[in-house]
């Protein structure tokens, strides 16, 4: 579990919109049904997000995830830089495990391929979400096919996002863009995600949804 302490908000210049929306397409073997040690945790009561849109919001100085569950209900999750600085290395490190491609150049190629396969989708509209809260901790379940992230609030709410390796890479790419838009220090990102390791990304004039 990744803890979070209050992070001060700072006013920033609003960035150009850079949205990432994707639909989870298949189960992964690190999902809660296949993972031991979760008996007693009311996992079935936690909504599984089927689509999410990720965007930096300058006035909050936080990253907002607007998620849609299978029943159409929407939730809004707020992630601070402090929490993301803890979360990102865990996720990128999981992609660098010994049974994965560990060479930085090859990782760069894999990252490029994942980003190239990202198809635009309509953004998740959460004008009247069923819940909106700050994420205080994240449970991470990992396996060879991807990760399952359970975002939790200290007040009780939770939501789950399961990502196979390719959408995980795509989501990490968009998170990095949010760091750049926010002006946050990006030393938490691995060398294989640096721009000079891969061909130029798509122009910002074409937002990803």
UniProtKB/TrEMBL annotation:
Q: What is this protein called?
A: Uncharacterized protein
Task: Give the classification, highest ranks.
Answer: Bacteria, Pseudomonadati, Pseudomonadota, Alphaproteobacteria, Caulobacterales
